[in-house]
């Protein structure tokens, strides 16, 4: 058993704990990614995302049927738009490549792909929780857009590092 915000006790295998635990895991992987990033603008964005994920985790760790949401459990205004702007900006900076990109590249790019897949899992866990309990739509939208951000960030960091991404081919070569 563990305690939620407000002291409510739940099982450690509860869907709520799975949801905010996976968000916490994502936050840790972002910290690992940041170790391999030297671009100050990217680092600033990663630290901003980490801070926002604390809001997301607090939101998910609050059983709203028993405890009201604190301000720290609310997604700050404009964060979805910020992530969408970052995605658009990165895409404008990069040459277009067609095909499915194999996860990998340089260390930072590969770490982005790990963040992307953990973020997708967090989104699935939050959607499962939302079937049983109130979860703000903005939380789900943020996680969805965030996984796309990590995909394009992987492309950007691989481009900066001069590493050509591998494109999937249906025939092994």
The total strand number stands at 2
- List the quaternary state of the chains: single chain
Biggest beta sheet summary? 2 strands, antiparallel
Described by the principal axes of the CA atoms, the overall outline is elongated
Radius of gyration: 17 Å
Number of helices: 5
Low-pLDDT parts are: none
Strand content: under 5%
Q: Which H/E pattern describes the elements?
A: EEHHHHH
Helix content: 55-70%
Major sheet strand order: 1-2
Distance between the termini: 50 Å
Structural class label: mainly alpha
- Average pLDDT confidence is 93
Tell me what you see in this structure.
This protein starts with a strand and ends in a 13-residue tail after the last helix. Helices cover 61% and strands 2% of the residues. The chain has a two-stranded antiparallel sheet with strand order 1-2. The protein contains 5 helices and 2 strands, in the order E-E-H-H-H-H-H.
Layout: helices, strands, pairs:
Layout: E1 2-3, E2 9-10, H1 15-35, H2 40-60, H3 79-93, H4 107-130, H5 137-160
Antiparallel strand pairs: 1-2
Helix pairs in contact: 1-2, 1-4, 3-5, 4-5
What would a concise description of this structure say?
This protein has helices at residues 15-35, 40-60, 79-93, 107-130, 137-160, and strands at residues 2-3, 9-10. The chain has 173 residues and is mainly alpha-helical.
């Amino acid at each position: 058993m563990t305690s939620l915000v407000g002291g409510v006790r739940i099982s450690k295998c509860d869907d709520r704990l799975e949801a905010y635990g996976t968000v916490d895991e994502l936050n840790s992987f972002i910290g690992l990614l940041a170790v391999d990033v030297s671009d100050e603008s990217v680092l600033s964005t990663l630290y901003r995302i980490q801070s926002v994920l604390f809001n997301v985790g607090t939101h998910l760790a609050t059983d709203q049927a028993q405890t009201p949401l604190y301000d720290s459990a609310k997604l700050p205004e404009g964060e979805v738009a910020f992530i969408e702007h970052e995605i658009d900006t990165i895409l404008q900076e990069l040459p277009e490549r067609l095909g499915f990109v194999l996860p990998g590249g340089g260390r930072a790019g590969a770490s982005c792909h790990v963040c992307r897949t953990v973020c997708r899992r967090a989104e699935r866990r939050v959607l499962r929780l939302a079937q049983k309990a109130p979860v703000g739509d903005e939380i789900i939208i943020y996680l969805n857009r965030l996984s796309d951000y990590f995909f394009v960030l992987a492309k950007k960091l691989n481009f900066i590092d001069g590493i050509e991404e591998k494109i999937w081919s249906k025939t092994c070569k």
